[in-house]
Amino acid sequence: MLFDSNMWLTERQKYGVVSTAAGVVFFLLGILAFFDSSLLAIGNLLFVIGVILIIGPTRTIYFFARPTKIRPTIFFFGGITLILFKRSFIGFIVEGVGILSLFGDFIGTIVQFLRNVPRWNRT
């Protein structure tokens, strides 16, 4: 079992974590497949759905619409749009800038979460 029954995540958030992780996997596969736009698009879709499931729709809108995050949000969704229009490499670069600006603060939180996942913590 990937998630322990006494973890602090709700059922919806567990699905969100799985969706986000699948999105990252598809995104990486898209990169490994020489920027295959289909895999990148599926990865983006799963990632955004996962974020919505983890923090909820209202907080997701607030997260992306904060005045300090407007420019990174434009880069992120602009990159997704470029990928959907088959401009994979340019879209990847634009989206990457947006991802680093939007989610760079959460890297420590993500690492800490992964350490608490029972099967991934081998210490």
TrEMBL record:
Q: Which residues cross the membrane?
A: 15-35, 41-62, 99-117
For this UniProt record, the keywords arranged alphabetically read as follows: Golgi apparatus, Membrane, Transmembrane, Transmembrane helix
Against InterPro entries, the record matches this protein to: Got1 (IPR045176), Vesicle_transpt_Got1/SFT2 (IPR007305)
Q: Name one GO cellular component term.
A: cytosol
Spell out the subcellular localization from the entry.
Golgi apparatus membrane
Its membrane topology is listed as: Multi-pass membrane protein
Task: Assign the protein's first listed, main location to one coarse class.
Answer: Golgi
Q: Which domain of life is it from?
A: Eukaryota
What GO biological process terms does the UniProt entry carry, in alphabetical order? Answer: endoplasmic reticulum to Golgi vesicle-mediated transport; retrograde transport, endosome to Golgi
The coiled-coil segments of this chain are none
Protein family per UniProt: Belongs to the GOT1 family.
Q: Can you say what this protein is called? A: Protein transport protein GOT1
Q: Which organism is it from?
A: Candidozyma haemuli
